[in-house]
Amino acid sequence: MPSSNTTARLSFLLLLFCGTVCSAMIVPFMGYFLVQGLGYQPWIISVYSVMAVCLTLLANRQFAQRIDNGARAFPLVGIAAAGFMMATIALSLFPTLWTVLSVGVIGFGISSSAISTMFSLGGGMAEQHGIARSRFNAYMRATTSTGWMIGPAATFLIADQIGLRAVFVVALSVALLWVALWWWTLPRDVTAQAKPAKGSVAGASRDLWLAASFVFCLSLAHSLTFSSLPLFYVQEVGLPGYAPGVAFSIKTFVEVIAIFATPMIIARFGMRRALLATTLLAVVTIQVLASVETFAQMFVGAAMEGLYYGFYASLGISYVQSFAQDRPAQATAIYWNTLMVSGLLAGPAVGFIAQSYDFQMVVRVASGVALFAAIVLLISRKKVPQVE
Fold first, then answer.
1. Which is an annotated Pfam family here (predicted)?
2. Which of 190, 189, 205, 187 is nearest to 326 (CA)?
3. 283-292: per-residue pLDDT in tens?
4. Is 206-379 in the same CATH topology as 2-185?
């Protein structure tokens, strides 16, 4: 039986990894494809992003309601994978703007719901196998971080060495593996059973949205930093063109280590204190990043960024889920939707601030947003429910 449980968990994480790689190959590439590949002005990126993200938010909400009501999740993951396949097939055959804004928006928008659905199922998987939810959240976050280490690097290597259109062909082949894993490894009757509601629903709702506000602020701070650092390093600091890639690799490597350490930190210090320390570390780290002048300083800053974001990535979702243990899928959808909205708003904010000042100012503003996240955390309910 232990061997069977281990196989089930590994199959689940492999399915999550494959779906994440698919998303990671496309999400950072679409803006590049629209501007560099199709020759349109950068504003078209916002049009695509708003349409795709809005569809993802809607899908996440609808799917979460179904999951919390006891619906089977197997078809929901299949719909997401099918949407991705549909979009990559269309763009492999007809790589045009109108394909992107029609089939691409629908397919990639719906496919992005898979991550939220899988994380919603993770709580049930943890309970079924006798694993603390915070620990299994860490496994899932490490899996998604690893997928993001591989996906973008593979995409831009293929685009550079073979061609932009080849990215969609290769993404389609990965999607076929995703569909195969979904069909053969995910149980047909898998659900995420909600626990009976406890306490005041109104109070729980208020606490849940305060937790989401905290996640929004710290995610926005990270998105502002993430979007502006490459141009800050190259254009304003004068580092070589490969420096942002090196920084990203260092950050992600440390991030994965931090994610695996999170359950131990929760057990030792408690979730609230760990989150507060992580948020204050983010404030300091972003200021360090804004002060980078040499390659060595960038190296240190990237490691610090990976440390705080790794802790936050694992703590954040457990924190939000802790305020809605009777509605885990809804809490998970709120968490992922909050991340998407913060990322969507970061783009225009970076452009406006950098146009008025510079990219260094964007990073300094991000530090202020992280400080505001700490304030939101302090005014939220002091007692955090126990995460199982």
1. MFS_1
2. 205
3. 999 999 999 9
4. yes
